[in-house]
Amino acid sequence: MASMMDETQTDVRPRTRRKTRRNVLFVFLGIFLVAAIVSGAYVINLANSFNGQTQKIANAFPEESTRPTKEGAASKAQNILVLGSDSRGDSVDMANEGAASDQRSDTMMWVHIPGDRKNIVMMSIMRDTWVDIPGHGQAKINAAMAFGGVPLVVQTLEGMFKARLDHVAIVDFEGFKAITDALGGVDVNVPIAFTSSGSEGFTFAAGSQRMNGDQALAFVRERYAFSDGDYQRVRNQQLFLKSVMNTALTPATLTNPAKISDLVSQVSPYVSVDEGLDAAAMASLGVSLRDVRGSNVLSFTLPNLGTGTSADGQSIVIKDDAAISGVADALGSDSLALYMEKNGLG
Question: What family, per the record (predicted)?
């Protein structure tokens, strides 16, 4: 398949840290889950750090009348939207307040935590997927942020999958580096050897490598080195997140209060969350996920029909309506992991 359209360097930083704002929000999954679990263990010491340093996304959700309800098997599950956007300057403030802006979502992940809390499933959605955006007709899904901010992104995805999102999260570029370095590096089993196309030109041999923050950042951002471009980039992102989980969710980390405190304090300033995702909510979720380890974190990319061209000449990813319907059914029955298994995904 052809590679996706060129992505724009992205920027979202807390108001107090606006210099060189850059966002790659796919790493928030790792940061969020690690913070959730460690906050569950050390909430008294960490609550002030988390609540005081994270930025809140005001008005993250659309009007209640437009939203699906949680019923039956899905009522105890949690769904979290992880977003990346190409903010510029003060437009980050507009996006965080739910207004339309000049942003576009760089990366999207729907994170599903089932009611039994036995695993975590993260579903990547290709940013150029051509979909119906409420009130705006058909467009790339990453344009929803520009059209109507975070609430429209939520409304678009909830409409696609007929499932309710409980939380929304954003993480800054520097937060990705921070969590990697705070962990003392992350071991990644590199599937394909390549040299990154950035100015640093990191070389990655196939096989296990220990990466620092700068190296890991290059690893998960690279797409030009691969014949299928964005597709391999997404696979690398998923692989790296699993590696973060494997590193963070070990006794060496979880039984070390000083390391946990440093991890949360280093990462929190680069994280934005909806107003309901405070330290208490993180602690509650963390306790419920106490038995989850890296091997229980599953990932796949929403199936699509490949690349194509829209009527107005844009390079797009063609959505697979059957796959979207299958995911919707799986979310409704709280069986997304089973859907993955039955369809050979991941």
Answer: Belongs to the LytR/CpsA/Psr (LCP) family.
